[in-house]
Structure formats: structure tokens, C-alpha cells
Amino acid sequence: MYDVLIIGAGVIGCAIARELSKYQCDIAVVERESDVCEGTSKANSAIIHAGYDAIPGTLKARFNAKGNAMMTELSKRLDIPFKRDGSMVLCFDEKRISELEELKRRGMENGIEGLQILSRQEAVQIEPSLSDEVVAVLYAPTAGIVCPFEMTIAFAENSVMNGAKYYFNREVTGIRRESGYFDISTSAGNMQAKIVVNAAGVYADVIHNMVCEEKIHITPRRGEYCLMDKNAGALVSHTLFQLPGKFGKGILVTPTVHGNLLVGPTATDEDDREGVYTTGEGLAKVLKEGARSVSSFPNRQVITSFAGLRAHEDSGDFVLGEKADGFFDAAGIASPGLSCAPAIGEYIAGLVAAKLNAVSRCDYVAERKGIPHINTATKEEREALIAADSSFAKVVCRCELVTEGEIKAAIHRPLGAKTLDGIKRRTRAGMGRCQSGFCSPKVLEILAKELDKDISEITKCGEDSGFLIGYNKGGAR
Fold first, then answer.
1. CA distance 323 to 327
2. DSSP string across 326-370
3. Three-state DSSP class for 170?
4. CA pair distance 266, 283, nearest whole angstrom
5. Do the Cβ atoms of 298 and 261 come closer than 8 Å?
6. Measured between alpha carbons, how far is 187 from 184 in angstroms, rounded to an integer?
7. DSSP 195-227
8. With 0-12 CB in 10 A as exposed, 13-18 as middle and 19+ as buried, what is 476?
9. In 3-state terms, what secondary structure has residue 263?
10. DSSP assignment, residue 150?
11. Could you tell me which residues come within 8 angstroms of residue 297 by beta carbon, excluding any fewer than 6 positions away?
12. Contact status, residue 251 vs residue 265, Cβ threshold 8 Å
């Protein structure tokens, strides 16, 4: 019997788990995939939005402003790569400058500081790469960029350091309310908890509707992206949006915290909750619209493309709070969900703790240190790492300069990596120009050795994603 069972180990579920681990309560996090950060949290724009876009008075507006403000301190405490690069909303038509003014007014009502309307001449002074079509911009200096993988993993690891337990490859198939607790059916057996928190992403309506009389409906909204090589990463120094439309903020062009350039997303409503495919048409639109924002657009520098799904609830806003006795929703978390995650985690955890009459822990560990990376370490730090463990001198991923020591560290941390994608998201091995073409065989070998498994058991991302077919321990056929 757990005090709290959280369904979903994306950024929202892990943020809630971290905040709840500040209290004296037993926490379980159940995830249908093989690792944290396997859904929407792994495939988004990696933006910490300033908060001018959300309609004043909505939950999106409330939690965006607060989540943004929390990021500076959180990034220090949890060792998360984060940078306030500032964002610009680009206007291409003099007749639409009034829409920039409306966004500014909305942002000021939401409490967003530093918003300015800049003329083209003023804008190119701080962002010289702007295309000739740009006539004015809304500048938001508080916007930022983050690594969504490391953010989610940091929340999860910190919660484990404080006692939370994670259960992977467990899909919730039913929830039954008993006297004073919930009986939760999963693909790996039943579990019991006094409180259930629903943070199931694009499946959050399915979970909600198992318990609540008032139903909700989520439409998966697919967004396609192109990721450019680091050769193109310095093209822009701010996150560039275009004036938003019916389906969101349009195609953006942004640097990443790791030095790449990201362009996207499209916005296509789907019936398929697993529809994370890309299309020629969609990627062509990404590149065409991206080229409208900046001059000398590097469309030949694409190293990979991907798609993610946003959980768009019919109300257009988040669904948060206690929706049945002991059942709490964190549903419909579409954009700006990543930006809101810290604040949503704090809010839901506060409600749950009050429901349980939970007492704050006096031994809470508030800080977490990430994996040391040779690529970003100082000369002195590199020498110290190698002196302590010579495997930090053995480069496995040439593109991102990731060593064997980093991969081993990723495996043996709290919630350590067990798959190739798990290593990729924790160390960036395989995220470079060759996209795992060089390093994946060696990573598989390290995983097998460190986990004491046969190499044929190592997968890309869990069940049914094996690499080796027809393999025997005595050798491959």
C-alpha cells in the first residue's frame, strides 16, 4: 500500500514525485515504457517560455509564469543545463504589429517582465540573422532553453534519492475505488495506493475516465522537427517564434543548450496516440517556414528529424487538481507544459500532501549532481576524472566526445540507463552527426557488461526493440 501512486514518468510526473518526496510519504511512479522521459517529454521544443502567449486567468498563464521563475534556482540545485537566451516573436507584416501589441499586453497582465516591441532596426542589433521579411518583433528576455531529457531525469533521480520508487514496463489497465484506497490494475500485477495522481500524457484522459464521472478528451497533436548540426548552432542566439495561429506558436528556430539548431514543430491533430512519425510534407514545411525567419537558412545541415505528441485537451487549458476523492489530475499538459512542470509539480504535491496530512521531511536532499561530461569539463576537472577512473579517457562517441566512464556512470546512477536510448538521453552518446552509426556497437557492449546481461538482451528502448537477430552466445549466425 503506497500513500501516492503517480501514473506517468514524464517531466510532469517526475516533477510531482520530486516535490512529494519532500514529505514523509511512500511514493510509487508507474510508467508503461522502459524508462523516464519516453513520451512527450523527449520530443518537444526544449523551450522555457516567457509566458506572454497564455490567455490571462488560465492555468497555463498561472503556471508558466511561476515555472519560468523557478528555473534559475532549479537548474543550479539539480545541475540541469539551462540558459535564458530570450525569445522573439517575429512579425512579417506591418498590418499585424497590433498582434504583437496584444501579446505584449497579455504578457504584462500575466506578470511577465521586460517585454518590448522592437522595430526591425532595433531587432537586428541583437539578432543579426533575422530575415529581410521581419518588420518588428516582440522581445521577451526571460525566455530560456533547457535540455528536456536532463530536466526530467534530474527530477526523477532527485525523487529516488528521497525514497520514491519507479516501476517501468507497467501499463495501467484499470482503477477501482475501494474503501479508503485505490486498487490499480497494471500489466505487471495489481498495486494499491491511498492517492492516485494522473500524469499520463496523451493517455491522461483514458486514466481520468476510469475514475471520474465528468469525462475529458485529449487529442494528440503531432509536431515534426528538424535538428541541425552544431555547425549551424550559432546561426541565432535567441529563440525565434512567428506570430501564433490557431494551432499554436508556429515554426520556431532556436539554439539548443548543447549547441545545435532546432526547427519546428508542425501541428497536426491525430487519432493515433502512438503516431510519432514524420512525413516528407511536414518536414518540408518545417524547413520552408524556418527559412522565412532567418537569412542564410542552413537546410542542408539537418542531422535528424523526429516528431512528438502534445496532449491537447478539448477545453484548451490544463486539467489540474482533485477530480474525484483521492484522485488528482495533471492532464492536458500541452505547450507550455515543459515550462510549467516545476510549478505544476509543486502545486499538485501541495494538494496531495494536504489530503494526506503529510509532514515535511527533515532529511530531504535538495541537490543532485549530474553525470560529469568530459566535453564540458575544465582541464583540471578532466585530469581529476581520468586520475580517478581511466575509462574517462576512452572516447566512445566521437561526435559528442562521450567517454566510457560517462556511459558507466549513466548505468549505475539512481534509475540508471538500461537501454541504448537511456544512455543517449543521459550522456548524448549517439546524438551527434553520425546519429549512433559509430558508437552504438560499443555502447551495447558496455551496457551488456555493466548490467551482466548477454548482449542480445540489450534493446534500443525496451521490449520489442532488440538489435541482434539470430544471435547465439557462441557467436552471431
1. 6
2. TEEEEE---TTHHHHHHHHHHHHHHHHHHHHTPPBPSS-------
3. coil
4. 8
5. yes
6. 10
7. EEEE--GGGHHHHHHHH-SS---EEEEEEEEEE
8. exposed
9. strand
10. H
11. 235, 287, 290, 291
12. yes
- Note if the pTM is more than 0.85: yes
Q: Of 49, 208, 258, 373, which one is the catalytic site residue?
A: 49
Instruction: Give the number of C-alpha atoms closer than 13 A to the C-alpha of residue 455, restricted to the C-beta side.
Output: 17
pLDDT in tens, 439-457: 999 999 999 999 999 999 9
- Scan for cell 552466445, then name that residue: 473
* CA distances for 408 relative to 23, 258, 283, 402, 458, angstroms: 32, 21, 36, 11, 15
**Under 8 Å between Cβ of 255 and 147:** no
Residues in the chain: 477
- 310, burial (CB in 10 Å: exposed 0-12, middle 13-18, buried 19+): buried
Cell reading at 188: 505487471
434 Cβ neighbours under 8 A, 6+ residues apart = 398, 399
DSSP SS3 for 145: strand
Grid coordinates of 392: 574517462
Work out whether the CA dihedral 157, 161, 163, 169 comes out positive or negative: positive
pLDDT digits (tens, 9 = 90+) for 207-232: 999 999 999 999 999 999 999 999 99
Amino acid at 319: V
Percent of the chain clearing pLDDT 90 (strictly above):
95
Over its C-alpha atoms, the chain yields an Rg (Å, rounded) of 22
Q: Cell numbers for 415, please give them.
A: 534509475
pLDDT in tens, 428-439: 999 999 999 999
Q: What is the pLDDT of residue 431?
A: 96
3-state class (DSSP) for residue 48: strand
Yes or no: say if 89 and 39 are a contact pair by the CB < 8 Å rule.
no
Cell numbers that stand for 55 in this block: 490567455
| Cell numbers representing residue 121 in the block | 532596426
Task: Indicate the residue type of 225.
Answer: Y
For the CA atoms of 51, 53, 59, 62, what is the dihedral angle to 10 degrees? Answer: 30
Q: Give the residue ranges of DSSP H helices in 253-313.
A: 280-293
Q: Is 49 an annotated catalytic residue?
A: yes
Look at phi and psi of residue 83 and say left if phi exceeds 0, alpha if psi is from -120 to 50, else beta. Answer: beta
How far apart are the C-alpha atoms of 244 and 263, rounded to whole Å? Answer: 15
Integer CA distances (angstroms), 398 to 109, 384, 408, 438, 439, in order: 48, 21, 17, 8, 8
For residue 469, the model assigns a pLDDT of 73
